[in-house]
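Final report, closing paragraph on structural work. Over the funding period we assembled a curated collection of sequence-structure pairs, and we close with a single example.
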Amino acid sequence: MIENEASIDIASLNEKIERESAFVDILTTEMNKVIVGQKHMVERLLIGLLGQGHILLEGVPGLAKTLAINTLSQAVHGNFSRIQFTPDLLPADVIGTMIYNMKLNDFSIKKGPIFANFVLADEINRAPAKVQSALLEAMQEKQVTIGEETFTLDKPFLVMATQNPVEQEGTYPLPEAQVDRFMLKTVIRYPQVAEEQLIIRSNLKGAFPKVNPVVNLEQILRAQEAVREVYMDEKIEKYILDIVFATRTPEKYKLEEIKPLINFGASPRGSINLAMAAKCYAFIKRRGYVIPEDVRAVVHDVLRHRIGITYEAEAENITSEDIINKIINEIEVP
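Its predicted structure, as stored:
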């Protein structure tokens, strides 16, 4: 009898999620009018938005990173701001500052570019630690303090930070503890030949399709609530925990050979974000429950920046992605 009730629950939940996630296809179609071929990046942006997380994008210049988040903000009818990180940037340039008004003989608050729904932190590793901390604090607390006043940031709030992996001169790499605050770290690859051909054509025409607002902010906020209702079975939770714990104590999972390659494993934030990202992925696929494939689809983006590799691994050209592959090939799928 209980089983029957559960299956009815799942059926009604499925219907609800299918209703709530109807906008995903419309939003993706609208973004694809402008963005050619970066399906993975668009999907990850949606996961970050629905999961109330933030995204770190790594890729060489010219792969439509700025265009992607700008297009998303237009399609969702949200406010967009771009902060170009440079070595001389100050925290006040990001969060805002107090300005003295001579007429009123008083201080007034000038809000910074962080007060937007979609914030692009371009080349985050170009700015000193003080500025990175100001941004990451705002990301974590979803609020900003200027002078003695505290302001809550707009909802939804999504930060997409980009890193250029090519140049390392004059950069301030993000410390591991700060990178951990990003829900996902997505590595963007070059487009395929046919995709790049389309990119050339649309650029030479000079006329880009206009992005229409197809979703409103209320729909996104409702979807963020609905994502939390996506059903996750205890077996899936156990699967997520096995994957995360295998990054900390690989020898307990018959993975002794990777122990010397791991400096430190994923934090509890990794477990939380992996569960949340899997729910978001199920939601995007218009399903009311999580399956192991959802976990496997997002595991690289959630964990690649949470596993510290040793010098030995670096010497052997082994990346955190290789370690994740070994783990998911060994851990038993429920």
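Confidence is low (pLDDT under 50) at residues 1-6. The CA atoms of residues 11 and 195 lie 39 Å apart. We thank the funder for supporting this effort.
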